[in-house]
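TODO from last week: model Type VI secretion system protein VasD.
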Amino acid sequence: MFVTGKNISRRLKFGSSLCVLLFLLGCSSPSLKVQLEAQSQLNQDVQGDSYSVLVRFYQLTDPAIFEKASKSSLFNEDESLLGVTLVGKEELMVSPGLATELNMPKVDETRYLGVVAFYRDASSKNQMAVAKVKSGKLAKTTKLDLLLNKNELFLTYQ
């Protein structure tokens, strides 16, 4: 097999492209992207009026404590309850009809994202969810969809 100028040029272009790609991957910050959509009938009272709902996002090393916790204990004492498994926390008041993308910086130790919505009507079981997030050197961004309806939330991967 002969090495020609064409082969060398092709290999150099490929190698350069690979180096640039790896450099860009290394420079990007790990993140959690959540496409949030709240329906207009959100967190309704007995008259059917819609209200904003408080939503918390927990970056966790392990989901076990979060999954066993009650919404009231998370509302009142989340940090002491979750302890060392909690490595990051964000909260947001979500208005009826809101559609937005949240871009949260991912803490290195994060392995799971826990989400809880504190609705007026706490009877539904679908008000808390957990998703495993990407980890490792090249797995930088986890993309999720969060749908909030009348009194439930649904967290899915994009």
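Done. Helices lie at 5-27, 64-68, 71-82.
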